[in-house]
Automatic annotation (TrEMBL):
GO CC, alphabetical: cytosol
Classification lineage: Bacteria, Pseudomonadati, Bacteroidota, Flavobacteriia, Flavobacteriales
PANTHER family: ACYL COENZYME A THIOESTER HYDROLASE, PROTEIN VDLD
Provenance organism: Tenacibaculum discolor
Entry superkingdom: Bacteria
Domain HotDog ACOT-type per the UniProt entry, residue ranges: 10-122
InterPro entries: Cytosol_ACT, HOTDOG_ACOT, HotDog_dom_sf, Thioestr_dom
Record-given protein name: Acyl-CoA thioesterase
Keyword Cell membrane: no
Amino acid sequence: MNNNIYRNIEDTRITISELMLPSHANFSGKIHGGYILKLMDQIAFACASKHSGTYCVTASVDTVNFINPIEVGELVTMKASINYVGKTSMVVGIRVEAQNIQTGNTKHCNSSYFTMVAKKDNGDNAKVPGIIINDDNEMRRFLEAIHRIKMKKNRQEKFDNDNFTAQNYIEELKNYNVKIEL
């Protein structure tokens, strides 16, 4: 008998919106990327905690690409949903959009993936509920997360193991802006 609990992805989606103020700007007058990352971490926490029913911590952040700058005065909306669940971890997908509230024009600014780990009160990892996939888009997101996890593991095995030999990669680096002096 399967005693696992499963939750609909829709039930744990979170959306937040915030008006971007001059105090959020960097030296070039655009909204500081670090401020956006802070908001993304907050929504990832909220989404993962809502799904798991526990306190969650950020384990990693993957694929942070700042596609379009965000201006002071724009309304930023972040949408988060659970894309993947493991035993104690979840991948939260986040989409960031900014809207010019005067013109109504909206632009995609960022998409990112936060791996969150559920915690028990004593600090140990907590088991998380599974997810129920209801459509092709949710299936695609789950599969994409599996592939990102596999690629990350393969990269770590290739470059983090004790068998790495720099000499094996000199030819590969020939066409890059690097000078090798081993």
